[in-house]
Design the sequence.
């Protein structure tokens, strides 16, 4: 790690304060932003400030938060809801959990600010039940804030009241989509519905509702305190502020990072992430989880922001970053994510329900060496069709892992279908383990570790692997001390 | 807990808490253990317990133990941040086995650095 590449706004308190002590939060300026809004700003001022800051939703598509709040403020209603989307479900993403477990009051404060801005006084945090510590700390935080008059009735002696409750999700990926989330909160099946009406007009119990992601909310008290100009001065033309990423996979410094928008992928991987273990070559990084796509070694200099990711068939998503090196097969990676979305599709619309299955089958066929060139065209056209016709964000983004890997690694796909080879050496059905005659000393070790006894040869003579019987487990390759077995 | 009835009261409370924290920082060693789900899973609570025991065994009684959420260094869990009186905080990672005791007997007792220091590579927003 070199210099200060990271800027911590959303995670400014995580790891520094005691999440189970409201005093600890107040000592770092906690609830000042809410106090400032109530004492010095009109709701419309708060919305203007949010609009001017340029903050965009951190949960996926990047809709401007201030605009969303402005819509909800516009509709008259006796009740309005502020919903915190804490249904974090991408493989490899854990930033929302980190914020909720490390700085719960920050999220509560931001929700109350949202309530004041749109004229609502009910808040709900939709959180998955498999985050028990985050739930416990949130419950404690809500109670502490109420005891101090920072939440509940007549906050800080004003006539603004705001209460927050928790709703537990059962861990369905689709419930991170805001309309499915609302359906789930109402006790219905977690299925999305067609927008409009948008939740800002008719959401939870048909009342105006704003749904904001945890990380989005975590930025808000800082924006109120430091101003719109400060925030919009960070980042790129279209994407302001910072983004929290969870880097994992083939990277030295697995962890949580927060960098200004526009930071290059190279900085993230090599400077902040510490590079790839074992001196291997960086190949790609999956951003945005199953809805995102692969940024590759060709994109190392690209500044990371919403638009640059979309241009590369990926998306910001919630911020998981799974790093892959030369030993990873991109077809298998795409198949892994399709396996996930195939399981998680709610089944309501046909393109997603059946399309995910068909995409998966095509990818599976390619990885077992039965794919044809025509399958590659089918993958593309099916992906395009699903993108254009699926009902919600889950379906519309589901083909991204396929399209983004085909964008740069078409050669690798072609090697699978034409040469029936997996260049990365991952797809077992396409591999062949062979003995290099010149290197084999006939130590017999490989023959002894082979679980199916398909290696034959006398001591001190070159050994032979029976390809028909080989199950491609790789035990011989691992054991050979003379590098006499190769996988290709 | 007394209710806070205005922004002025909140600011007063903040100032009091900050003054108290500054005083503690000058007088005591502060040990902050990362205890998010992941920190706990990798043994953070045991680290805290071992450090408490070692401090007691060595008769060091000016240590205040606190916990926090994720320190962001998954690769080096469990992680502990130690602030010696009047000094900058230092984060130590990879606190496994006897390392917890070593932090007390070396760094806390005599300021002697041990392996596993994680440099701060971020700027943190405060207000």
Sequence:
């Amino acid at each position: 790690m070199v210099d200060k590449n990271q800027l911590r706004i959303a995670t400014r308190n995580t790891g520094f304060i005691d999440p189970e002590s409201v005093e600890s939060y107040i000592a770092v300026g906690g609830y000042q932003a809410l106090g400032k809004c109530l004492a010095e700003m009109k709701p419309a001022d708060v919305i203007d400030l949010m609009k001017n800051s340029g903050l965009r939703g951190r949960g996926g598509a990047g809709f401007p938060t201030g605009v969303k709040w402005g819509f909800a403020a516009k509709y008259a209603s006796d009740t309005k809801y502020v919903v915190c989307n804490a249904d974090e479900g991408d493989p490899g993403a854990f930033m929302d959990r980190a914020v909720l477990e490390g700085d719960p009051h920050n999220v509560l404060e931001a929700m109350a600010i949202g309530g004041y801005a749109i004229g609502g006084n009910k808040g709900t945090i939709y959180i998955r039940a498999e985050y028990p510590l985050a739930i416990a700390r949130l419950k404690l935080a809500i109670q502490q804030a109420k005891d101090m008059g920072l939440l509940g009735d007549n906050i800080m002696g004003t006539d603004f009241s705001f209460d927050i409750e928790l709703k537990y999700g059962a861990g369905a990926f689709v419930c991170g989509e805001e309309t499915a989330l609302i359906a789930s909160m109402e006790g219905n099946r977690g299925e999305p519905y067609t927008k409009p009406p948008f939740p800002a007009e008719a959401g939870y119990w048909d009342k105006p509702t704003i749904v904001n992601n945890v990380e989005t909310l975590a930025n808000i008290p800082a924006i109120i305190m430091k101003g719109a100009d400060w925030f919009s001065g960070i980042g790129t033309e279209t994407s302001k502020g910072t983004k929290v990423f969870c880097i994992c996979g083939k990277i030295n410094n697995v962890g949580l990072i927060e960098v200004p928008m526009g930071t290059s992928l190279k900085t993230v991987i090599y400077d902040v992430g510490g590079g790839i273990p074992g001196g291997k070559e960086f190949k790609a990084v999956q951003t945005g989880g199953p809805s995102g796509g692969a940024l590759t070694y060709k994109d190392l200099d690209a500044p990371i922001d919403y638009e640059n990711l979309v241009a590369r068939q990926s998306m910001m998503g919630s911020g998981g970053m799974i790093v892959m090196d030369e030993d990873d097969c991109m077809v298998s990676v795409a198949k892994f994510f399709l396996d996930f979305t195939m399981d998680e599709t709610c089944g309501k619309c046909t393109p997603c329900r059946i399309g995910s299955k068909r995409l998966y089958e095509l990818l599976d066929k390619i990885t077992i060496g039965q794919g044809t060139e025509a399958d590659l065209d089918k993958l593309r056209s099916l992906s395009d069709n699903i993108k254009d016709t699926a009902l919600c964000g889950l379906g519309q983004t589901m083909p991204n892992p396929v399209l983004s890997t085909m964008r740069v690694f078409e050669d690798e796909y072609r090697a699978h279908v034409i040469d029936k080879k997996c260049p990365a050496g991952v797809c077992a059905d396409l591999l062949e383990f062979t003995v290099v005659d010149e290197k084999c000393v006939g130590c017999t070790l490989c023959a002894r570790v082979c679980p199916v006894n398909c290696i034959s040869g006398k001591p001190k003579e070159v050994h032979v692997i029976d390809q028909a019987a080989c199950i491609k487990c790789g035990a011989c390759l691992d054991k050979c001390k003379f590098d006499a077995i190769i996988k290709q | 807990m007394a209710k806070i009835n205005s922004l002025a009261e909140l600011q007063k409370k903040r100032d009091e808490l900050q003054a108290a924290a500054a005083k503690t920082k000058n007088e005591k060693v502060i040990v902050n253990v990362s205890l998010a789900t992941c920190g706990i899973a990798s043994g953070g609570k045991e680290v805290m317990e071992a450090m408490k025991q070692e401090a007691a065994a060595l008769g060091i009684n000016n240590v205040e133990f606190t916990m926090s959420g994720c320190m962001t260094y998954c690769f080096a869990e469990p992680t502990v941040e130690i602030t010696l009186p009047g000094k900058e905080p230092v984060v130590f990672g990879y606190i496994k086995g006897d390392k917890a005791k070593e932090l007390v007997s070396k760094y806390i007792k005599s300021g002697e650095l041990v392996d596993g220091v994680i440099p701060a590579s971020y700027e943190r927003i405060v207000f």
User: Anything to note?
Assistant: The two ends of chain A are 36 Å apart (CA to CA). Chain A has a mean pLDDT of 94. Residues 22-232 of chain A form a domain with the Rossmann fold fold (CATH 3.40.50.11540).
